[in-house]
Amino acid sequence: MPALRIALVCLGNICRSPTADVVLNQRLRDAGLDHAVTAESCGTGDWHVGEPMDPRTARVLTAAGYDASRHRARTFGPAWFDHDLILTMDASNHTDVLASLPVDRHDRVRLFRSWDPERDPDQPVPDVPDPWYGGPAGFADVLTIVERTCTALVADLEGAGQ
Ligand code: 4NP
After folding, report:
1. Catalytic machinery residues
2. The dihedral of CA 86, 78, 38, 72: what is its sign?
3. Which one of 9, 11, 23, 146 would you pick to mutate in the ligand 1 pocket, going by the greatest count of ligand atoms within 8 A of its CB?
4. Which domains does the chain have, with CATH numbers?
5. 10 lines ligand 1 (CB under 6 A)
6. 145 lines ligand 1 (CB under 6 A)
7. Pocket of ligand 1 contains residue 23 by CB under 6 Å
8. How many Å lie between the centroid of ligand 1 and the Cα of residue 47?
């Protein structure tokens, strides 16, 4: 069993949390932490269950050298309640996760961008903006935010001795 299991949660599990899943797993492998930490993703909604990533997300990831081909969308539910860290992409996902997760596990839930090195520490933790209804720039922005946040998250896990 890995020491630490991380769940990454967005709404549809076809754009933001799959991006974080692919990037975080790459960073964990690069750091030699993949034996100790696992990361996987799901969504609070079930509209896209079983589907691959949104092609706009897959295009951005593939262009940056990641493998976007293996993802299939899954839904947050009891099978995810035992994860050690549950990282939500936005405030709405956060509220939805807390609404179904047993209260004694609420301290496992954090907003993903808590680790964003470019966030303003005097402001509330920002969302990873939902790119679904926007243009291509939104998908590129998600990857930029996710990459720097995953770098900082993995550094934190390394510092914690994972
Ligand atoms: P995600 O983006 O939560 O980042 O995967 C979305 C995907 C699908 C929908 C909304 C957001 N949707 O409404 O179907």
Report:
1. 10, 16, 130
2. negative
3. 11
4. 4-159 (3.40.50.2300)
5. yes
6. no
7. no
8. 9
For the residues of 17-84, what is the DSSP string, one character each?
Answer: HHHHHHHHHHHHHHTT-TTTEEEEEEES--TTTT----HHHHHHHHHTT---TT----B-SGGGTT-S
pTM: 0.97
Per-residue pLDDT of the chain (162 residues; tens, 9 = 90+): 568 999 999 999 999 999 999 999 999 999 999 999 999 999 999 999 999 999 999 999 999 999 999 999 999 999 999 999 999 999 999 999 999 999 999 999 999 999 999 999 999 999 999 999 999 999 999 999 999 999 999 999 998 876
